[in-house]
Design brief:
The structure is a single chain. The longest helix has 19 residues. Strands 2-1-3-4-5 form a five-stranded parallel β-sheet, sandwiched between helices. Helix content is 47%, strand content 13%. The termini are far apart. The protein is built from 20 helices and 16 strands. The site of adenosine-5'-triphosphate has 16 residues, from helix 7 and helix 15.
Length: 442
């Protein structure tokens, strides 16, 4: 499976090449139209990906010339376009181009398009070999585990996205443990928790006397993680000036300590995480587009706990075993299990863990009941009436589903379709939220 890539921008080109190689494609990357043209004439490519703006040619001219010269042996072409050139891209689509993506785009989206256009590849399924569940038992999480193991072996840099408390750092550690540098350090830093100057010193270290209070030389996390994995948590919260420095460090694989002059070579695997929408931050000018492409070569999404109900009791039991250390193990009554399943868990695994921690501290019983976990109102009605975020989300969800059911006269198939979820998922939600098909609380 070979792709021809024409992209004059070094960062974009490298990100695309890295990502597609990770996906198992061979990539020939050209920066000049003439070179790509010659390679395409020689044949052997499944898809041609090209920037629409090139220094030596316009995408428009190039495409028409290739069509004339190669005819049906021209592979499907996907153009990368900026907002300013969408019109040209649409014209090219009409002229026979296969597709286009608009910057800033999600690499996953482009990979999907390429996959659809190219023949399916035959990667070794052993690379996806099973392992005991660590990140969850829900199918979505089993897929995430397989993906992380495969990426770890490939030594890829990864961006983990997901709501707060969903287990991003845990997943980063899992990734680290499955990589070649597993015996090497795993170092985590929260980019949102520090001021700009503190973050700079934290990332790159400082020399003695670099600033007031710098009485000793300090190695930054880049140096500490050398040979292993550096986990940059909340990368979306990194101040813009630091983003410039970070990008330079990643590109050049070198850092310089604050107050120092000698560049230090660094080789490590970078895992970044964010609960924010990086693409939206790019559009708002709060996150650099070039850094976005650099850290977002491969994105792994961890779904919120409410989207994977299979994981709720599995994690609850795990946390109980873990928290019981030393004291007799605790179990859950059936009502407690049902109450746990009814919650929307906006704080995800962290919230679930805290909930059990609190219950263990306060209730001196072997089998925890619903009342040990939640307030009486929640237990009795399945519906919290306090002003917490979880209550609010649950109310909204219930309300929305009831209305949809009413609009569709209680027909499950069309209601599920209108909500964009499966029938099974709708039944589960209705059961969890206590709604009957006529929209009333059951
Ligand atoms: N697979 C797991 N097994 C056991 N515990 C887990 C797992 N994943 C997460 N946890 C626990 O859940 C809590 C939240 O996990 P973690 O810190 O990884 O989430 P996060 O998404 O990085 O959160 P934030 O966005 O706030 O940084 C932690 O207490 C962690 O120990």
């Amino acid at each position: 499976m070979k792709l021809c890539l024409l992209e004059d921008d070094a960062i974009m080109g490298e990100s695309l090449r890295d990502r597609f190689e990770m996906e198992g494609y061979g990539v020939d990357w050209f920066r000049r139209a003439g070179d790509a043209e010659r390679a395409l004439a020689a044949g052997g490519y499944q898809v041609f990906i090209s920037d629409i703006r090139l220094p030596d040619e316009t995408g428009d001219n190039l495409f028409r010339r290739l069509q004339r010269a190669l005819g049906t042996s021209l592979p499907p072409v996907i153009f990368i376009t900026g907002y300013g050139s969408i019109e040209t891209a649409v014209t090219l689509l009409k002229a026979g181009a296969a597709d286009y993506v608009v910057k800033p785009f999600d690499l996953d989206e482009l990979v999907r398009k390429v996959r659809e256009l190219a023949q399916p590849d035959d990667r070794d399924p052993a690379a996806l070999a099973d392992d005991s569940p660590r990140l969850g038992v829900a199918p979505a999480m089993r897929r995430v585990e397989a993906q992380l193991r495969r990426l770890a072996v490939a030594g890829a840099s990864v961006l983990i996205v997901g709501e707060s408390g969903v287990g991003k750092e845990y997943a980063a550690r899992y990734f680290h443990e499955h990589g070649a540098g597993a015996a090497r350090p795993f170092v985590a830093v929260n980019c949102g928790a520090l001021t700009e100057s503190l973050l700079e010193a934290e990332l790159f270290g400082h020399e003695r006397g670099a600033f007031t209070g710098a009485q000793r030389m300090k190695r930054g996390v880049f140096e500490q993680a050398a040979g292993g994995t550096l986990f940059l948590d909340e990368i979306g919260d990194m101040p813009l000036p630091m983003q410039v420095r970070l990008l330079r460090a990643i590109q050049e694989r070198q850092i310089t300590r604050v107050g120092g002059e000698t560049p230090i070579d660094i080789s490590l695997t970078l895992v970044s995480a964010t609960h924010r929408d990086l693409r939206a931050l790019v559009a708002a000018g709060e996150f650099r587009e070039d850094l976005y492409y650099r850290v977002n070569t491969v994105q792994v999404r961890l779904p919120p706990l409410r989207e994977r109900p299979e994981d709720i009791l599995w994690f609850a039991r795990r946390f109980l075993d873990e928290l019981a250390a030393g004291s007799p193990p605790r179990g859950l009554s059936r009502k407690a299990e049902q109450a746990l399943l009814r919650q929307p868990w906006p704080g995800n695994l962290r919230e679930l863990r805290h909930c059990l921690e609190r219950a263990i501290l306060l209730a001196d019983v072997e089998i925890l009941d619903a009342g040990d976990l939640f307030d009486a109102e929640v237990v009795e009605t399945g519906e919290a009436i306090s002003e917490g975020l979880s209550d609010y989300l649950q109310h909204c969800e219930r309300d929305h589903i009831r209305r949809a059911l009413a609009r569709h006269a209680g027909r499950i198939t069309s209601t599920a379709e209108s909500l964009g979820i499966s029938r099974k998922n709708l039944w589960e939600k209705m059961r969890k939220l206590g709604i009957s098909a006529d929209g009333s609380s059951g």
